[in-house]
Design brief:
Length: 286
């Protein structure tokens, strides 16, 4: 019989048994062997423990099939490695210990950061970093503020919509929002934050070619496809190689400053632990 077919049938049977036995006590189902490679055995209990909760029977079958295949492949590779690597190459104790040490230290540092350290980044710190490092905040692509509206082809009063979305009057913006609430497929006023032209182009049926040149000489863009009308009004823009506005990079600066403060906190922690150990004579030098 084909091995894959045999395994598939076995998997269906196993899943049925395991799912029906999930509430039973005893270890008989857990210890029953399923696959053996050399002296290594995969038991039904090991498979059952690996199956995520709340899977349907069909999904459990797919998961179990994949789990068994991966276990077999992994064991075969491991046995080949054990046969073909030298004793020195197989000695991974030092690597495991170094990994364990690094993992424990990292987990402890993260626990301390969560429990004892919640740094605040002030506006003045952000402004200072922005001013001092402005060469790092030059734009790589144009960005805009404006209005973007998508309405179905069947939307009413399109001519009125064309007037409203172009207007800079606050009253017209309110009327536009009322219109879009009832008729728009998608509507975004982004006068208080910047969007890249790439972000806008992804929403259009056809991207605006040469967007940098376009926004220099155009305040509006209208297009359509078989389903929708698209309207873009550009109120402000910044071009590539210009200094990015502070509000566009503020989140990035805040993340940089937070990371700096965290690194400083961890370094101070190491220094404090060292000095405390010296004071308590926990360190002996020979």
């Amino acid at each position: 019989m084909n091995v894959a077919l045999r395994l598939s049938g076995t998997v269906i049977m196993i899943v049925s048994i395991l799912l029906s036995a999930c509430n039973q006590s005893g270890d008989s189902i857990n210890e029953e062997p399923l696959v053996k490679i050399g002296e290594t055995i995969l038991t039904k209990g090991m498979v059952y423990q690996a199956i995520p909760n709340n899977l349907t029977k069909e999904d459990s079958i797919i998961f179990t099939q994949d789990y068994i295949n991966r276990w077999i492949r992994s064991e075969l590779l491991l046995k080949k490695a054990e046969l073909n690597l030298t004793p020195e190459e197989k000695d991974v104790a030092a690597l495991l210990e170094e990994y364990r040490r690094s993992l424990l230290i990292h987990q402890y540092q993260q626990k301390l950061l969560q429990q004892k350290y919640s740094p605040l980044i002030t506006g003045s710190e952000i402004q200072k970093y922005y001013t001092e490092m402005e060469d790092n905040f030059m734009l790589s692509e144009p960005i805009i503020k404006g209005v973007f509206v998508i309405v179905p082809q069947s939307a009413p009063n399109i001519d009125k919509l064309k007037e409203l979305y172009r207007s800079d009057e606050a009253e017209d913006l309110v009327r536009l929002e009322a219109y879009c609430f009832q008729n728009a497929h998608r509507y975004e006023v982004f006068l208080d934050h910047w969007l890249t032209m790439d972000n806008i182009n992804k929403r259009l049926p056809e991207p605006i070619n040469r967007p940098e040149r376009f926004i220099r000489y155009n305040n509006h863009h209208e297009t359509a496809d078989s389903l929708y009308h698209y309207f873009l009004s550009i109120k402000e823009y910044k071009l590539s190689n210009e200094l990015a506005p502070l509000d566009f990079v503020e989140g990035k600066i805040k993340a940089i400053l937070l990371n700096k403060k965290r690194l400083k906190f961890i370094k101070q922690l190491e220094t404090d632990l060292y000095e405390e150990a010296l004071k308590n004579k926990s360190i002996s030098f020979y």
